[in-house]
Structure formats: C-alpha cells, structure tokens
C-alpha cells in the first residue's frame, strides 16, 4: 500500500515539475502558458514518456487540475 502511494506522489511531482519547466520556456518563446501546459502534458502522457498511461490516473490528475484552476 505504501509503495502505491509513493508512486502516486512521484507522478504528481513529475507532473508539477514538467509544468514548472515548460511554462517559463514557452513564455520566453512568446507563446502562452496554456500551450506550455499542453506541451508538458503531451511530453509526460501516454504518447510521450509514458509516466501516465492508465486512464484512471489521468482522470484523477485532470480533476486535480480543474480544482486548482478554480482557486
């Protein structure tokens, strides 16, 4: 059980780290931050590096993004 929780924490840290890296890069290139987040999602998603490949995991992370955007 603890291993599963630890792996989820690693996935969330990878997701946040990809956003932190991609958004400033895209802003420096004169593009919007939303494109940076989309590129980060594509890079770490199932068709990129494959950190997130299960549909349930992607759904949970997407819900987290919706909740955080409402704050």
Automatic annotation (TrEMBL):
Bilayer-crossing regions: 12-29, 35-53
InterPro entries membership: Na+/solute_symporter_sf (IPR038770)
Keywords, alphabetical: Membrane, Transmembrane, Transmembrane helix
GO CC aspect terms: plasma membrane
Classification via PANTHER family: GLUTATHIONE-REGULATED POTASSIUM-EFFLUX SYSTEM PROTEIN, K(+) EFFLUX ANTIPORTER 3, CHLOROPLASTIC
The name this protein goes by in its record: Potassium transporter
Organism this protein belongs to: Polaromonas eurypsychrophila
Lineage of producing organism: Bacteria, Pseudomonadati, Pseudomonadota, Betaproteobacteria, Burkholderiales
């Amino acid at each position: 059980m603890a291993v599963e929780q630890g792996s989820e924490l690693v996935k969330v840290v990878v997701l946040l780290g990809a956003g932190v890296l991609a958004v400033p890069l895209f802003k420096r290139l004169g593009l919007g931050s939303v494109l940076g987040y989309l590129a980060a999602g594509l890079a770490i998603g199932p068709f990129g590096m494959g950190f997130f490949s299960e549909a349930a995991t992607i759904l949970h992370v997407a819900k987290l993004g919706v909740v955080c955007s409402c704050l």
